[in-house]
Amino acid sequence: MNRPLKVDYTPISGVSKEQGVTHAKKTCDKLAPGLNIAPDLLHLDDDAQTRLLFALTLFDRNLGLLPPGFDNAQAVKRLLRWTLKSKALPGDPDQRFEREALSVSGLVKVLLLDGLRPLSSKDVLEVGKIYNPARVSTGTGTVRTVPPLKIDLLRADLFSGLEQVIDGQLDYFQPGKGQKLQRVPMDSLRQLATVVQDYMKFQCGSFPMGNPDSPLFTGYDLSKRIESTESVQITDDFLMSYVMNRAIGVGYGPEHNELFTRSNFDGTRDDSALYDLMQQFLGRPGIRGKVGRCIQLTGSHSGDGTIRLNPVIPPSTSQSTNTWRWDMLRTMIHEFLHHLSHPGFNAKAQKIGHGQIIDEGFVDMITAIVFRQLVGEITKKPDLTGRFLPLQGPILPPPTWQLKTQYGEAGQGADKITKVVGQDRAYAAFFLGSTQHAGLK
Ligand SMILES: [Zn+2]
Fold first, then answer.
1. Per the domain annotation, does 121 fall within a domain?
2. Distance (Å) from CA 312 to ligand 1 centroid
3. Is 122 helix (H, G, I), strand (E, B) or coil?
4. Which of 48, 307, 383, 420 is geometrically suited to a Cys-Cys bond with 335, CB 3.0 to 4.6 A?
5. Number of structural domains the chain divides into
6. In terms of domains, do 90 and 162 share one?
7. How much is the pTM?
């Protein structure tokens, strides 16, 4: 975003409070002739009126930056909705009001995308190989045909690999004899959520807020949406999505000797075969109970923005309290990013062979970036760190693995793609849904 934005309120400098509504209506008539906002204005309190008047003026003063054909009426409608939900006001520090208003109008998105060059066809080809590991394009548009799926091999090795993963997780949280599991108070996690949401909104560059339809503008409050994984309702869908997620990790993981490659698994072709296998897996004796317990120990999110965090501190001595404290923060960022990801980007997971790169890899790649920044901020403010996650023991730097992208091959895939396309293009795809910038049609 290199073009200068005008923050200039001189057109309304002489407007009294009483004249504010009339003036907002006049500005709206100029911006979007025919759009009648008069009925909406009746519902606005004083702060919302101020917000609307200043936001419309700001938008109007920056119209010159927008391309012809930009939908002003949609921008005004979004701003109207936002005035009812936002707490921002003109004069807020760091131009927070202006940044929110211009983001909601859609102007920031236009400028961000305008500043990015399209991806070269060479780079599209290169990232295409990462998205579709089983299908190698020859460069002339033809794609290697993947041999038939070796279902018996896949079933045997996948089931044993999954059992290892599940038992490993349960062991990790198994208390020793006479040992009691410790829990982090949920309220301290909610305090942390306020810091995370504010940071993500205002201190991670323009992309997270660049989506005019972002939940960040609808009054979403992360601190009110945090729940404990221990209270989660275990449904069939939940069990299935947990085992599907882990199956993909096992299938692509080097620790299982490239199982998907060995068994000719192609995500664009064999998704339903994998689903059937997972139904068989869940039908094995004792598995549903074990998977249910794993779900209650694993951070997760749902489409409505509910974020579940595991408050249980693992008893293992290898996992220090310090590591766990940072893991809470890292998981919160990860689950929150799921909620901020653009629906248009998420939809692409169905279209590629290794959909988990989109479902989880990009999420964790950005998680690691935000986590590194936030750790730097937090360690500068010990009072802040002490207030949330009030665990015993000194606050030491997080272990190195937490600073890097996790999620196995899916995370590494996202890292490789970001290296090719650059962080701005990856963010444009993830937050703004401009998927072609990440090499996705
Ligand atoms: Zn996730």
1. no
2. 19
3. helix
4. 307
5. 2
6. no
7. 0.92
